[in-house]
Amino acid sequence: MLELIGEERLAKKVEASYILDRHGARTSLDELPSAPSEKRPKKILTKFGLEEIASAHDLLIIRKKLCKRPNDCNRIVTELFEVSERIIIYTPRFKIRFKNLKTGEEKTTDFDGVTAKRIK
Protein backbone atom coordinates (compact mmCIF):
# COMPACT_ATOMS: atom_id res chain seq x y z
CA MET A 1 0.00 0.00 0.00
CA LEU A 2 1.29 3.44 -0.96
CA GLU A 3 0.11 6.61 0.80
CA LEU A 4 0.80 10.08 -0.65
CA ILE A 5 0.37 13.26 1.33
CA GLY A 6 -0.07 16.50 -0.61
CA GLU A 7 -1.29 20.07 -0.43
CA GLU A 8 -3.82 21.73 -2.62
CA ARG A 9 -2.91 25.22 -3.75
CA LEU A 10 -5.74 27.53 -4.71
CA ALA A 11 -5.89 31.03 -6.03
CA LYS A 12 -9.31 32.63 -5.89
CA LYS A 13 -10.02 36.06 -7.32
CA VAL A 14 -13.34 37.77 -6.66
CA GLU A 15 -14.27 41.12 -8.12
CA ALA A 16 -17.36 42.92 -6.89
CA SER A 17 -18.93 46.32 -6.64
CA TYR A 18 -21.05 47.25 -3.63
CA ILE A 19 -23.07 50.31 -2.77
CA LEU A 20 -23.95 50.38 0.93
CA ASP A 21 -26.33 52.64 2.82
CA ARG A 22 -25.59 54.12 6.24
CA HIS A 23 -26.70 50.91 7.96
CA GLY A 24 -24.36 48.72 5.91
CA ALA A 25 -27.18 47.23 3.84
CA ARG A 26 -26.66 46.86 0.13
CA THR A 27 -28.51 49.43 -1.99
CA SER A 28 -28.92 50.06 -5.71
CA LEU A 29 -27.34 52.66 -7.93
CA ASP A 30 -30.80 54.21 -8.49
CA GLU A 31 -31.00 55.10 -4.78
CA LEU A 32 -27.69 56.95 -4.90
CA PRO A 33 -28.33 60.71 -4.61
CA SER A 34 -27.85 62.88 -7.68
CA ALA A 35 -27.04 66.05 -5.74
CA PRO A 36 -23.56 67.53 -5.87
CA SER A 37 -21.37 66.43 -3.00
CA GLU A 38 -20.52 68.75 -0.13
CA LYS A 39 -17.10 70.40 -0.49
CA ARG A 40 -16.33 70.21 3.24
CA PRO A 41 -18.42 67.37 4.74
CA LYS A 42 -16.42 67.22 8.00
CA LYS A 43 -17.28 70.86 8.72
CA ILE A 44 -21.00 70.19 8.22
CA LEU A 45 -20.86 67.06 10.39
CA THR A 46 -19.19 69.02 13.18
CA LYS A 47 -21.58 71.98 12.84
CA PHE A 48 -24.69 69.80 13.27
CA GLY A 49 -23.16 67.35 15.74
CA LEU A 50 -23.55 64.39 13.40
CA GLU A 51 -21.61 61.16 13.69
CA GLU A 52 -19.03 60.38 11.03
CA ILE A 53 -19.04 56.87 9.55
CA ALA A 54 -16.21 54.74 10.94
CA SER A 55 -13.44 54.42 8.36
CA ALA A 56 -13.21 50.62 8.50
CA HIS A 57 -16.93 49.86 8.97
CA ASP A 58 -17.68 49.45 5.27
CA LEU A 59 -14.51 47.42 4.70
CA LEU A 60 -15.50 44.93 7.40
CA ILE A 61 -18.93 44.46 5.81
CA ILE A 62 -17.50 43.97 2.31
CA ARG A 63 -14.79 41.60 3.53
CA LYS A 64 -17.37 39.46 5.32
CA LYS A 65 -19.50 39.24 2.15
CA LEU A 66 -16.62 38.45 -0.22
CA CYS A 67 -14.13 36.35 1.73
CA LYS A 68 -15.64 32.91 2.09
CA ARG A 69 -13.02 30.37 3.06
CA PRO A 70 -13.48 26.61 2.68
CA ASN A 71 -14.37 24.82 5.92
CA ASP A 72 -11.65 22.18 5.53
CA CYS A 73 -8.80 24.65 4.99
CA ASN A 74 -5.83 24.01 7.33
CA ARG A 75 -3.87 27.17 6.68
CA ILE A 76 -3.73 30.26 4.52
CA VAL A 77 -0.28 31.16 3.25
CA THR A 78 -1.08 34.59 1.81
CA GLU A 79 -4.25 36.58 1.47
CA LEU A 80 -4.70 39.88 -0.30
CA PHE A 81 -7.81 42.01 0.16
CA GLU A 82 -7.65 45.11 -2.01
CA VAL A 83 -10.20 47.89 -2.44
CA SER A 84 -9.48 49.96 -5.52
CA GLU A 85 -12.03 52.74 -5.05
CA ARG A 86 -13.93 53.90 -1.99
CA ILE A 87 -16.22 56.91 -1.77
CA ILE A 88 -18.35 58.10 1.14
CA ILE A 89 -21.26 60.31 0.10
CA TYR A 90 -23.14 62.32 2.71
CA THR A 91 -26.63 63.38 1.68
CA PRO A 92 -28.76 66.05 3.33
CA ARG A 93 -31.65 64.95 5.55
CA PHE A 94 -34.47 67.08 6.87
CA LYS A 95 -36.38 66.36 10.04
CA ILE A 96 -39.89 67.73 10.47
CA ARG A 97 -41.41 67.91 13.93
CA PHE A 98 -45.18 67.84 14.41
CA LYS A 99 -46.79 68.88 17.67
CA ASN A 100 -50.37 68.23 18.77
CA LEU A 101 -51.36 71.48 20.43
CA LYS A 102 -54.08 69.84 22.53
CA THR A 103 -52.03 66.98 23.98
CA GLY A 104 -48.52 68.38 23.60
CA GLU A 105 -47.41 65.14 21.93
CA GLU A 106 -44.59 65.54 19.39
CA LYS A 107 -43.62 63.27 16.50
CA THR A 108 -40.89 63.62 13.91
CA THR A 109 -40.31 62.29 10.42
CA ASP A 110 -37.22 62.43 8.19
CA PHE A 111 -37.04 63.38 4.52
CA ASP A 112 -34.26 62.95 1.96
CA GLY A 113 -32.92 66.41 1.12
CA VAL A 114 -32.34 65.50 -2.54
CA THR A 115 -35.45 63.57 -3.54
CA ALA A 116 -37.83 64.89 -0.83
CA LYS A 117 -38.95 61.29 -0.22
CA ARG A 118 -39.86 60.23 3.30
CA ILE A 119 -37.25 58.09 5.01
CA LYS A 120 -38.75 55.24 6.98
Can you describe this structure?
The structure is a single chain. By secondary structure, the protein is of the alpha+beta class. The protein folds into two domains: 1-89, no CATH class; 92-120, no CATH class. 15% of the residues lie in helices and 13% in strands. It contains two helices and three strands. It has a three-stranded antiparallel sheet, with no helix packed on it. Strand 1 and strand 2 form a beta hairpin. It is elongated, with a radius of gyration of 23 Å. It starts with 40 loop residues before the first helix and ends with a strand.
- Alpha-carbon distance between the two ends: 68 Å
The residue ranges in which pLDDT falls below 50 over 5 or more consecutive positions are: none
What is the number of helices?
A: 2
Major sheet strand order: 1-2-3
Given helix and strand content, the structural type is alpha+beta
Mean pLDDT: 78
Please tell me the total number of domains: 2
What percent strand?
5-15%
User: What is the radius of gyration computed over CA atoms, rounded to a whole number of angstroms?
Assistant: 23 Å
